[in-house]
């Protein structure tokens, strides 16, 4: 059964199980998808007062879909060929999904800031929650990139993931400030 087809309790049981997957990357991708879902909800609830809300909802839905797909990749589905690579190539390849998760989570955090600033004020707490969750997912994914690329802390992918995580954290803090 595919990771995305599991009930929540089954997914949590899989995360807690002894196997390697699903792991931190899958969890970060699903948290990102949940944050994007919250944004779509807030945007839909803001359509009466915010002309751009429909476009924001569509963008949030796209980010949610992307994060869900990344969760599938991170879970190991279709990754059997990884065993055939040299160790260095395997580590580099292992860094790709968490880097994409970090980027997607960063996009969601930035979108959350826009929603927090412009969306329905009575739903702003959900936008802030989405920003905080996305920032945490970006940070977690950036850590996975760094772990998978242990050879060099100066690797451009490690630096890029760290930058995305920092920008997501700033966006989350700005979203929090927008509610005040």
CATH C-level name: Mainly Alpha
| End-to-end distance | 44 Å
Order of helices and strands: HHHHHH
Strand pairing plus helix content: what structural class? mainly alpha
Q: Please, what is the average pLDDT?
A: 87
**Do you know the CATH architecture?**
Up-down Bundle
Number of domains in the coordinates? Answer: 1
How would you sum up this structure, described in words?
By secondary structure, this protein is mostly helical. The chain has one domain: Formiminotetrahydrofolate cyclodeaminase monomer, up-and-down helical bundle (Four Helix Bundle (Hemerythrin (Met), subunit A)), CATH 1.20.120. Helices cover 73% and strands 0% of the residues. The chain has helices spanning 8-16, 24-44, 53-74, 87-118, 124-148, 156-178. The chain starts with 7 loop residues before the first helix and ends with a helix. The relative contact order is 0.16.
